[in-house]
What does this fold into?
Amino acid sequence: MWTRLLGIAMVPLTGMGLVAAPSLSERLAVVDATTATERDVLALNTVLELRFAVTAELVPVETVLRSQAFGITVDQASGFMGFDLVAQMAKTRSAVDAVLAEAPVAAIADTVRRTLGEMRSAVDAGTANLELDLVHRTYKGVTDSLTMESERMLDVIVSAASTTAGRAAGAQVVTQHLVDAYELVRAAISEVEALFRLTILGGDADPTVARVDLIGARTLYRLQLSQLAKSSSDGIRTAIERLEAGEGPATFDAAVDGQVAATKPLSVLQLASTFKASFTRADMLREVTRAATEDATALVHQRRSEARDRLGRDLTLLLVLAIATVGTALLIAWSITRRLRPLAARAQAVSEGDLRGAPADERGPREVTLVARALNQTVATLRHIDAQAATLARGDLDDEILSVPGAGNLGASIHATVQELSKAWREGEELQQRLAHQANHDLLTSLPNRKAALEALEHALARANRHGDAVWVLFCDLDGFKRANDTFGHHIGDRVLRTCAERLAASVRGGDVVARLGGDEFVIITDRLTSAREAAELARRLIDVIGEPIEFDGVSTRVGLSVGIGMSLDGHATALDLLRDADNAVHRAKKLGKGRYEVFDEQARDELALHNELEQALRVALDHDDLRLHYQLVTDTVTGVVQGLEALCRWERDGVPVSPADFIPVAEQSDLINDLGCWALRTATRQLAEWTAEGKFPEAYVAVNVSGRHLLSDGLVDDVRAALDESGLDPRRLVIEITETVIVSDLVTAVAHLEAVRALGVRVALDDFGTGYTSIGQLWRLPIDVLKIDGSFIRHLETAHDHVIVELMIEVAHTLGLGLVAEGVETAAQQDTLRELNCDAIQGFLIARPQPPDRVVTSV
It folds into this structure.
């Protein structure tokens, strides 16, 4: 009798073990997920603490500098703010160093130390030697690095929360608090920066646009604050209530509201008070983020403790069940081994994967009957599982068998696994579809991307080749998009691109392909046009619809469109060739005035062939050193002493001079212009060094023109340094000349490269001044040493209009401490007028024409 009882007891023990075992991996995954989440939460909090601390360090430094700019001493400014600014700078620096020591990522800590190093050295040397631009660059460099690192850590936490283990651990609740707190910090900092831009930075910013930015930043801060208060715990809400009731935040809010409606900048006293208020609000915001972090870590710690407790109970249960099952099995095996031999043979066959045998005989002793019935039930369950596995392997996720669970706890557990696999399979298919869509579509506009456009064009050409139809490509390039993007910001620029994409898609017929190639370039592919006239009508319609005003969120802007039309009348062209033809046509349209369309025809093809042939010849000339530099003198307006020489590139091809107006634009459209600039730098510096050794031009400089492509490339500084090292020329005797249009095309990169060149000791001249887009008020912000007045103003110097303009340019240059050269001086009357206007130096045919080195005179 006892053997029957043991046999009966073994079945539920085994079933309970099978149910408990699958939970172990889940418990372990939850423990690991909560541990990782807690580590990442603390790391993110440290980075946010570092950002608060760095902002606190920079506030008193900038306060001192701004106060000095208003003629207020450090002691007076300290009195305005209610604390010792010098002591505050030392205190905030110590706070930053303390947080840096706890930084979770060594790389970000090293980056912040390096960025702060130059500014701290200047502070230690005395704030009088510290420039605002250095503080602004330091602040931008540090905040950009910390923003990137904090967003990376936040992405890690969000990604972990989206996993199965993360969801089981409640990590999604943790993540929401952190996301809301982080967005509040970012919105608060954006509001402070917007207020500072409006009331402090000044410059050439449009006050109306600056106030719009401030209103937007303030609205976003209030929205994020409200969002966090609604979705957070009591601790966070208490910190927010303290923030709302604080005197510092209230003072800062009053300053923001006042400045939005004001027409003048803040007074010095208001400015100091605003600095102090922003500092106080930052401290209270830090309490909010700390509360969020404490809530997060507490919740994660609680979930980990619960997971560990459940894991311990599961392990104990499994151990007890395993011991009980093994003991029971041994007793039963000892008592009825001989009776179970047939069942053992069947079980052996089942263990080898043979599920096709006849059911086990359930007759005989009760113990044998029980085991046989269990074996048959297990075989039935395994057959059911095998059928479900085969269905999954076929990918038939809608088969009814997948929804039917097997018998017993094992069948239920396996059924749950099958359901998870089916879900994972469907999610994988959906993910694959999304990835396939993303691989072929632009994320911003949802239009097909360049890859998809080329595939569509190849298919269209293949159809046209079979049927003899024409294929048309309209290359669409927005006009004025960069101006709108720089004026209103990238978020507005993205909405402009989406609006233009929608307008283009709505202007074509079904079956036509509208794709975005990148930036502000779109392409339309169609095989439904029958003539060039229809293509022109479509181009004009697109130009009109894109030119309509774009309005949203109280912002109104307008962009234009240039269209290049390429065609294949028989489908024999390649996709790349046809796209290149349309691209060349749109460049031609932009060159002829924008807001128009051009068709790539035989004339354009001939021009392109001539362009390519000239480019290849110029490349050969560079390789064979067939180019020459001629030099034009720059002399003192009063004494006539030679101050410098401008190096000008000349080329004779097969004995026939080629105009620089022909080959320089060809070089600028390729990397040849960089090679040409490097050659000119080396040749000019070597020539001046040779003249100096011969006793000629001992004090003169040589000026070399640098193209926009070369200036914006990463190799300019290395090319200048190499030319100076090879020639041994004093860097102060080298001047590089750049034009206004080059600077405004990419102001940030251009200024950075010019500052690096000036750090070598080389001077910078702004050529053709007056013909570009640089305002006189911007000159003091540009890293230049010399202004060169364009010859078009000198040519009409006798007119009252140009006389006044030239006089104003000379006064501005002298006021800013810049050197001055008037170009294009061709008459003695022009020279006399420039001498009366106190112009420093002149250059032109009146003094000397450009000459080869052996014909350059040393005096005039």
Q: What stands out?
A: The two ends are 131 Å apart (CA to CA). The first helix runs from residue 2 to 20. The chain has 30 helices and 16 strands.
